[in-house]
């Protein structure tokens, strides 16, 4: 079978990337398996099984590559990961906002630095085990149309939300062969049939570089100091208690507040300058609009912006998500002109008030199944 092209397959040692490599080889691609070295020591095992590139994961990835007869290598990207993911994660929390390191890893590592590395290996594409679909429909005239990033067939595993940074230029070089498959019915079955050790490996959970998902302790250890204590206050300014670091609290949080009350209380504000955490009722969490910056269009930017302008002051109807697994929320999007020194973004009005909109998190907008773009909540 003639080769369909040379592809770098990002291999983590998990079931998804293993099956990705298998499917692409079956389809006639020349595959090169690559694992990114991100946080580990020289032994690749300084964080044990919690690491994103633990020794056992590397062994599993290499075993799959050997079974498939494809070359395999490990590439050191610790400096980029530290600068663009870990340091940003810490600084975002220190600014009183809620980061999303998985989105930054996809943007700067998997489909940034690793895509550049793929080109250095003469690979035309990079492939990952993400659950989403990349398509290119023809235009009415029959010519190739724009690329689209769409939701996966497996709604429960859909990862299009964390892939919004895939621009038209990047989509042209991305393969996501799992997008049309169901994980439990298809992917795990294929892995078992091929004898991959990862067939029954559980899905990764939490933040790969933060042991036990305890980000506050991670930041304390990294900074070499304890987080400063401060006041927990009500929306009227009444002191309700003390906290052991404002960074331990997230907008919308209800549990672990350390305050007794006759009615449910939620975190509705984190002020790092005054080092206070504000608690209020559920009504204090509701908002029907947001501004987002650092905006990236996955769909063709000029086309979408023209549609928004044509929609007028009411805004272009879209579906929006402010959390990974949130159901679609009907909304309208308008463009926001850049002020001096600031980047242009968007304004989103929700048809139904939303609970716990957290600055620093991602908001992603859709047109049906297709991702239009996304950005960071301001």
Structural commentary:
Belongs to the MnmA/TRMU family. Its EC number is 2.8.1.13. Keywords: ATP-binding, Cytoplasm, Disulfide bond, Nucleotide-binding, RNA-binding, Transferase, tRNA processing, tRNA-binding. It catalyses: S-sulfanyl-L-cysteinyl-[protein] + uridine(34) in tRNA + AH2 + ATP = 2-thiouridine(34) in tRNA + L-cysteinyl-[protein] + A + AMP + diphosphate + H(+). The protein contains eight helices and 17 strands. It is an alpha/beta fold. It folds into three domains: 207 residues, HUPs (Rossmann fold), CATH 3.40.50.620; 49 residues, SH3 type barrels; 92 residues, Beta Barrel (Elongation Factor Tu (Ef-tu), domain 3), CATH 2.40.30. The chain starts with 5 loop residues before the first strand and ends with a strand.
């Amino acid at each position: 079978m003639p080769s369909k092209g040379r592809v770098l397959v990002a291999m983590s040692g998990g079931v998804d990337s293993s099956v990705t490599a298998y499917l692409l080889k079956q389809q006639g691609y020349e595959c090169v398996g690559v694992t990114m070295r991100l946080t580990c020591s020289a032994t690749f095992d300084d964080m044990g099984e919690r690491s994103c590139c633990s020794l056992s994961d590397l062994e599993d990835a290499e075993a799959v590559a050997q079974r498939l007869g494809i070359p395999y290598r490990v590439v050191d990207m610790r400096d980029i990961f530290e600068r663009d993911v870990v340091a940003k994660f810490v600084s975002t929390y220190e600014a009183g906002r809620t980061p999303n390191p998985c989105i930054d890893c996809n943007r700067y590592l998997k489909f940034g630095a690793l895509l550049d590395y793929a080109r250095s290996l003469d690979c035309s594409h990079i492939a990952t085990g993400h659950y989403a679909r990349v398509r290119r429909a023809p235009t009415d005239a029959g010519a190739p149309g724009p690329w689209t990033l769409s939701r996966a067939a497996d709604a429960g595993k859909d990862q299009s939300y964390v892939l919004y940074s895939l621009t038209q230029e990047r989509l042209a070089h991305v393969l996501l062969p799992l997008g049309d498959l169901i994980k439990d019915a298809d992917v795990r079955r294929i892995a078992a049939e091929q004898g991959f050790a990862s067939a029954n490996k559980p899905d990764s959970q939490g933040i790969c570089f933060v042991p036990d998902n305890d980000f506050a302790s991670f930041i304390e250890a990294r900074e070499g100091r304890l987080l400063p204590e401060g006041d927990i206050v009500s929306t009227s300014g009444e002191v309700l208690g003390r906290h052991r670091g404002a960074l331990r609290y997230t907008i919308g949080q209800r549990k672990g507040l350390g305050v007794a009350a006759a009615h449910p209380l939620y975190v509705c504000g984190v002020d790092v300058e005054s080092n206070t955490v504000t608690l209020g009722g559920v009504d204090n969490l509701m908002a029907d609009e947001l501004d987002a910056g650092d905006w990236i269009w996955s769909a063709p930017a000029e086309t979408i912006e023209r549609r928004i302008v044509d929609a007028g002051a009411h805004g272009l109807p879209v579906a929006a998500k402010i959390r990974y697994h949130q159901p679609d929320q009907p909304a309208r999007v308008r463009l926001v002109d850049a002020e001096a020194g600031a980047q242009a973004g968007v304004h989103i009005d929700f048809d139904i008030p939303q609970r716990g909109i957290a600055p620093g998190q991602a908001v992603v907008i859709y047109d049906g199944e297709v991702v239009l773009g996304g950005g960071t909540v301001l």
